[in-house]
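Exercise: predict the fold of this chain.
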Amino acid sequence: MSHTVRTRFAPSPTGFLHVGGIRTALFAWLVARQAGGTFILRLEDTDKAREVEGSGQHIQDSLRALGLEWDEGVGKPDGGGPHGPYIQSQRLASYKLWAEKLIAAGRAYADPYTPAEVQAFREQAQAARQPFLYRNHRPGPDANGNLPAWDGSTALRFKSDPKDYQWHDEVMGDLHAGDEAIDDFILMKSDGYPTYNFAHIVDDAEMEVTHVIRGQEFVSSTPNYLNLYEALGILPGQGRPLLATMPHILGPDGKKKLSKRDGAKDVLDYIRDGFLPETLVNFIASMGWNDGSEQEIFSIDELVQKFSLAKVQKSGARFDEQRLLWMNGAHIRSLDLDTLYTLCQAPYDYWPPEATDYPEEYRRQILGLVQERLKFFKELPELTRFFFVDLPVDPELISGHKQLKKVEPAELKELLARSRTALETSDFSVDDLTHKLNDLLEQTGQKPAVLFSLIRIASTQAPSSPGLADTLAVLGKERSLQRIDRQLESL
């Protein structure tokens, strides 16, 4: 087997990828990149009843959107690499060859039972208060000592060799299981397709995979996999990969595994909403891993350098969308204005429709103002629309304001009128506006939460805005005063 690190991501094309699947891919990608190894993309499409059309392409699009390019596998030129094909439904001849090896070694047999007969065995075990084990009902040999022959029309079962196992997991540590965890499981279904339990072991062996990184749900099946590895002659140091089990990603309540049914979003939806790929990679890596420091914001290069399976936690990691928003805001604030402007233009145009009537320099000024507040690009219209269009006066912005609703309308009108008079003498530079606004505070004796909120609402008709002096300077003198006049009329 190759000494080069070779990892793989092998999803089933049964729908979109959410963060759980992406994290498995990311950790496998990081292990390969850190070691200068190979990252493989394989599709496990043997469950045709659950396959969703277009999922295979969607998986590729999702990985590429995050920058997780693979070295071998689906979608690559020249068949994907030297170990293709990389789609299980195109590898049926391989599985049949390995199945025949097991049959020849007396380690597989045709399943002679109907579903009704298997159910009867289950009920017998329940009645006897015993766990159901298929191997307790294994058909006996014929007169010549042979197990039932397999012609492909029935399921093929593995003839297990029950025993205790101890094994090391790169994340979970030393694990063990008794012989009761070992059973005769199906290798090939009657439809001619292999089961996951058989196919992934064959694929990993033929593709020389060195690290198998997968979810916690497979821990209970590992003893069966170890039993099959031995039957196939795939031994430690002779082709058996290292195993690394990822803890569950839990829902926002931290109580159960995050699932699509709980609202786990398609990763491409996050991209379309204006979350940066670097943020998503950073966020997903941080669910279940940290480098032992207080650092939370990592570049992709830093993740490649610092990642270690040994520092993946054993317990579940909670999905916290508020933390994702904070993290994306932090990544946005780290961008230079040119890069940020480009990202707001393409591949999606996040500006409000009215922005198309304004010059680029004006939009750049606005973007520079809202960069500190921007958490994802899709909220850009909400944060900036008042810069491009005069919004109607909204009385609820004052009546619902914590401070302004306590002030009598007549007093508000007088305060706004004094503010207008002061602003009319300004040259509307940020420095002069700041000076005028501070003078107003002193002259009126008002709190900033009252005076500045009143001027901000009058000039923007928005529930929030960047710094008041900066906002007024960008809006300009004429537009700002016109808007204040409209608010005065409504008061």
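Check your answer against the key: The radius of gyration is 32 Å.
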